[in-house]
Amino acid sequence: MDMLATRTTWLAIGILFIIVVGTKILRWKSSVHPLSTRPPPPIVNVLGLLPSLFIKGFGVTINDLYTKFGSVFTVSLFGPKITLLVGPEVSTHFFQGLESDIDVRKFMEVTIPIFGQEVFYGVDTATCSEQLNFIVDALKPSKLRSLVDPMSQEVEAYFAKWGQDGIVDLKHELEQVLMFISSRCLLGYEVRDMMLEEVYSLFHDLANGLNFLSFLFPYTTTPRNRRRDKAHIRLKEIFTATIRSRRSSGRVEDDALQRLMNSKYKDGRFTTEAEISGMIMGLVVAGHISSTSTSTWTGACMLSNTKFLIAAMEEQKHIISKYKNQIGYEALSEMDTLHRCIKEAIRMHTSAPVLVRKAHTKFRVHTKEGEEYDIPGGHNILVPTALNNKLAHIYSDPHLYDPDRFGPGREEDKVGGKYSFTTFGGGRHVCPGMALAYLQIKVIWSHLLRNFELKLISSFPKADGSKMNQEPKGKVMISYKRHQLL
Ligand code: HEM
Q1: How far does Cα 57 stand from its chain's mean position?
Q2: For residues 299 and 177, what is the distance between their CA atoms, to the nearest angstrom?
Q3: What's the whole-number mean pLDDT along residues 322-336?
Q4: How large is the average pLDDT for residues 459-477?
Q5: What does the pLDDT read at residue 262?
Q6: How many Å apart are CA 454 and CA 457, to the nearest integer?
Q7: Among 431, 441, 444, 445, which residue has the most ligand 1 atoms within 8 Å of its CB, making it the best to mutate?
């Protein structure tokens, strides 16, 4: 009996073993095997692309490759590989994949000397992600309402300095007024009132640390990098002094600096002075350049398209009469025409023309052309936002400035599917400053449309290819004459 029981037990264990192993093999066959059978994307050698890159430029070359190979292709750089994913159909893993599978860290070394070792890509992934969450929280749309009054005061005070009529460089004017807004809403009134000129010039030196050369060699001693390092040290001193003074006096303000000071890690510790300083530098650098560029493009586009300029002005008239000229958060939220004019300007002239990641593990994409590719781990992955924003199967007449494409009944970006409009990124690293960017640009343009008659007098600007953010090249001259929109 005992022997029978032992035999039965062994038989049961044997059957169980066969089932477990068999199931594993079947699962492996059905999931792993097919993965290994998909081909990698078509590959082109960078040598063959050099003539086109020199003659036609990066944008046109990528567009030509897209026409030839479809939405996924790889460029080989004598060893390292860059795989391009064009269009929303193949972008999901790029935006949503786990950091352990695909991440941006490798390309962000350039930011370490700019913002400091204590933040973002100078610290481990978990701490970095907590810090990014502090920023998301500090810039939540619900927290922006209280910033409208200070923003409007800065804008009114700035343009009050303009005469009855005149000619100005729009880009310069918008850069200045945005610095006043940033200092008031992000850095705090201490900086705004006492040392804005110095801080403005330091931020200029800091932001100049973001250039093509320092992407490759962030620590090389060049004059630019030396100025960047000096600016970092001085800004850190300024923010540290402000933080200490607020903490010792118990004074609490309503700005991003304060919200970052109040942020706590999951283990209960508060952010340090160096971390707060680094994060605030990150906010200003990330937000200021892109907002200046976007607000200038918005102006250039509206002033060159009478139909939409008139539509935006009509909307202002309606809002003025509805809100008795009190332009607060609700009034700004109702400016849909102006919102679409900004969105369309930024679709055509995105300040982040490419987004990059490093794939650590293999992933599969299904293209709209019906192909399936396995992209090997180790590839660098690039999403060309500027090209995505002009895809003819998503945007009708993509080279036309047509804000109505985002309006009711069309909504081309939504119809195109998730990740059709990635000017602000998407998924895990979507821009936390998007709502703030729209808000400040609307406050400025609402004020300009209500108070000035404007004309673009220089030719429509070209994008500055030497700058990473594709800002308008050179001066953007406009004439203004005061008027009162009624
Ligand atoms: C028109 C203005 C802006 C544009 C076009 C823009 C664009 C972008 C894009 C495309 C990304 C994603 C990058 C990637 O996926 O690799 C991003 C991330 C980011 N942006 Fe913006 N941005 C703008 C304004 C702002 C403002 C005003 C702030 C803050 C004050 C800001 C703070 C950030 C931060 C902190 C990140 C990093 C998020 C993360 O890695 O999780 N941006 N932005």
Answers
A1: 23
A2: 14
A3: 95
A4: 92
A5: 97
A6: 9
A7: 431
In 32-158, DSSP assigns E strands to 43-45, 72-76, 81-85, 102-103
For the CA of 294, the nearest atom of ligand 1: 1
Do the annotations mark residue 431 as ligand-binding?
yes
Per the structure block, which two tokens stand in for 265? Answer: 């890690």
Nearest one of 98, 281, 136, 107 to 206, comparing CA atoms: 281
CA distance 328 to 153: 11
CA–CA separation, 98 and 76 (whole Å): 25
Overall average pLDDT of the 113-128 stretch: 97
Answer whether 479's CB lies under 8 Å from 173's CB: no
Burial of 42 (0-12, 13-18, 19+ CB in 10 A): middle
What φ, ψ does residue 374 adopt, rounded to 5°?
-105, 125
* Dihedral angle computed from the Cα positions of residues 105, 106, 107 and 113, in that order, rounded to the nearest 10 degrees: 80
Yes or no: say if 447 and 159 are a contact pair by the CB < 8 Å rule. yes
Q: How far apart are CA 366 and CA 364, in angstroms?
A: 7
Give me ligand 1 centre to Cα 434, in Å.
Answer: 7
Neighbours of 295 (CB within 10 A): 27
Structure tokens at 35: 């993965």
Tens of pLDDT, residues 256-288:
999 999 999 999 999 999 999 999 999 999 999
Query: What pLDDT, in 10s, does the model give residues 38-70?
Result: 999 999 999 999 999 999 999 999 999 999 999
Can you list the domains of the chain with their CATH numbers? 38-482 (1.10.630.10)
Tell me what percent of the residues of the chain surpass a pLDDT of 70: 93
Question: How far does the centroid of ligand 1 lie from the alpha carbon of residue 104, in Å?
Answer: 13
Name the pTM for this structure: 0.91
Strand 355-359 relative to strand 102-103, pairing: antiparallel
- Give 383's pLDDT tier (boundaries 50, 70, 90): very high
User: Please, which pLDDT band fits residue 1 given cuts at 50, 70 and 90?
Assistant: very low
Nearest 10 degrees: Cα torsion 279, 285, 291, 293:
-160
CA distance 366 to 347: 25
Token representation of residue 434:
């998007």
Neighbours of 141 (CB within 10 A): 13
Looking at residue 18, its pLDDT comes to: 44
Specify the residue with its C-alpha closest to ligand 1, atom 24: 287
Establish whether residue 287 lines the binding site of ligand 1, counting it when its CB lies within 6 angstroms of any ligand atom.
Answer: yes
Token representation of residue 63: 């567009």
279 lines ligand 1 (CB under 6 A): no
The response to whether residue 454 sits with its C-beta less than 6 Å from ligand 1 reads no
**Whole-number Å distance between alpha carbons of 420 and 387:** 11
